[in-house]
Design a protein that fits this description.
heterodimer, A: 112 residues, mainly beta, 6-stranded mixed beta sheet, 5-stranded antiparallel beta sheet, 54% strand, B: 113 residues, 4-stranded antiparallel beta sheet, globular
């Protein structure tokens, strides 16, 4: 079993839809949770960074962490074609993180 | 304000040759990380360096791979005697203080023929 599991998709939604992206993990030591967006042929870009459980909102993006279930989510409201990308979850146990573990990424397409 | 820079963006090598990948971190960042990404797989940590020091190389194969981050100049990831299995995208990231907020470069796509 991988430490971080993420459904690779692909996921296709119409413009304006609410998108839900998810990851599960097995290591209960993980405390820091990140979401990265990666456009084709580009490097990952940090979208959201949360610590421990709870919600964090930034514009159209909301990150949720449920440590009891070892489950994290990223919600995108009012999705736009420019949101089409691969979304990677990442997590680590420490802040000085050379122990960050990435999911395989979910490929999202938002159709106009 | 330049971000993390990597070059070359694409590199083609024949089996047995050496590949040298360069990474210039964001201005003011002294922590550099190298990752490898294979198709349909997540980023895999390879090595973490600070200026003139290798902090953690636990993700890097013991043979053929080496990394450095000299006092002056970019960080270098060197792969000797490349094999087809080394074909991948290699990303460099930098951070200000070794924390979780890492900023990634555009990657170098290595193809081994």
């Amino acid at each position: 079993q991988k430490e971080v599991e993420q459904d690779p998709g692909p996921l296709s939604v119409p413009e304006g839809a609410i998108v839900s992206l998810n990851c599960t993990y097995s290591n209960s030591a993980f405390q820091y949770f990140m979401w990265y967006r990666q456009y084709s042929r580009k490097g990952p870009e940090l979208l959201m960074y949360t610590y421990s459980s709870g919600n964090k909102e930034d514009g159209r993006f909301t990150a949720q962490v449920d440590k009891s279930s070892k489950y994290i989510s990223l919600f995108i409201r009012d999705s736009q074609p420019s949101d089409s990308a691969t979304y990677l979850c990442a997590m680590s146990a420490r802040d000085n993180n050379n122990d960050m573990r990435f999911g395989a990424g979910t490929r999202l397409t938002v159709k106009p | 304000n330049a971000g993390v820079m990597q070059n070359p963006r694409h590199l083609v090598r024949r089996r047995g040759q050496e590949a040298r990948l360069r990474c210039s971190p964001m201005k003011g960042h002294s922590h550099v990380y190298w990752y490898r990404q294979l198709p349909e797989e997540g980023l895999k940590f390879m090595v973490y360096l600070q200026k003139e020091n290798i902090i953690d190389e636990s993700g890097m194969p013991k043979e053929r791979f080496s990394a450095e981050f000299p006092k002056e100049g970019p960080s270098i990831l060197r792969i000797q005697q490349v094999v087809r299995g080394d074909s991948a995208a290699y990303f460099c990231a930098s951070s200000l203080a070794g924390g979780n907020e890492q900023f990634f470069g555009p990657g170098t796509r290595l193809t081994v023929l």
